[in-house]
Amino acid sequence: MQTIQANNYPVHFNEKGYEALNSHLKTTKYSNVFIITDSNTNEYCLHKFLPYLETDLTIEIIEFEAGEINKNIDTCIEVWKVLTDLGADRKSLVINLGGGVVTDLGGFVASTFKRGVDFINIPTTLLSMVDASVGGKTGVDLGNLKNQIGVINVPTMVLIDTQYLETVPQNELRSGLAEMLKHGLIFDKNYWEQFLDISTIDFSDLDLLIHRSVVIKNEIVMQDPTEKNIRKALNFGHTLGHAIESYFLENENKTTLLHGEAIAIGMILESFISWQKKLISEIEYRQIKLAINAIYDAVQIDKNDLQPIMDLLIHDKKNEFGTIQFALIDGIGSIKINQLVENELILSAFEDYKS
């Protein structure tokens, strides 16, 4: 699988990644290595990774409890303290081995510890392979508000090895698939059409599908690393999806949604809005809704849920001057950013989702 050159760092695949990692360790004078994991990746992935590591440097493992609920500044403080206690310095290397929570939090910890140390991301879930580990976004949640605190700072390299997906439950794989669907909808109609009938997908070619997703995201990010313009395209489905995810996370009467499950709902809702704004046809909208609903279970969103979800929209990071802005698809495979959407239309989208 060909290495992808991102913005000042490479994305390596499978065996080539370990070769590049070990070569980097030999040629770069690090003082020690810290591997950040969560409790899941410590149990299921660490023993797969360590035999590949060829170095005489001291290796320390830092583990925190798995779950989005732990992606917060308190966990960062604990990790910073452990790094300090174990003698980390500005020549230390941090390796983030895990899903999006680990790569987001670990990247933020490394970017801010002693004003920044090198870090390498090794994503272990489908979602983190195609999304969270690529593009340089790091950060943590503020309460139930997603990714409110963070910096954009690129890793030294990313290593994607699909063997780690053997440890991932089916619902987590579906969660990652949502970002791949998004990449097709906003950038590549032919890629999107591969997912129209999930039963026909040859998942033995998953490496190729992942590689294409990373290429798409990288092409967009390279044009706009700091999300001032076209990178906002990657937020399709996320304006409403993040609000839904946050609401379900904080509400004890709701079952917490995985990121991709919430984004799947957001993509249906924002496709409806795209249709109503005459950016896509009704046939295209129905195709999108049918394809996504074939993969994800319907989620009950009651009338009483709508206002709290709407209230959360104002905290979305894409908003400027208090105005909620959407990225909407402009024909499958293309996107329009900075689109204003009336509250009445958002509520209509929820009504259609329930139908």
UniProtKB/TrEMBL annotation:
Domain of life according to the entry: Bacteria
UniProt keyword terms in alphabetical order: Cobalt, Lyase, Metal-binding, NAD, Nucleotide-binding, Zinc
SUPFAM superfamilies from the UniProt entry: Dehydroquinate synthase-like
A Pfam family it matches: DHQ_synthase
Cofactor: Co(2+); NAD(+)
3-dehydroquinate synthase C-terminal domain mapped to chain residues: 176-319
Gene: aroB
EC class name: lyase
Described function: Catalyzes the conversion of 3-deoxy-D-arabino-heptulosonate 7-phosphate (DAHP) to dehydroquinate (DHQ).
PANTHER family: 3-DEHYDROQUINATE SYNTHASE (PTHR43622:SF1)
InterPro entries for the chain: Dehydroquinate_synthase (IPR050071), DHQ_synth_AroB (IPR016037), DHQ_synth_fam (IPR030963), DHQS/DOIS_N (IPR030960), DHQS_C (IPR056179)
Span of domain 3-dehydroquinate synthase N-terminal: 62-174
Protein known as: 3-dehydroquinate synthase
UniProt-listed Enzyme Commission number(s): 4.2.3.4
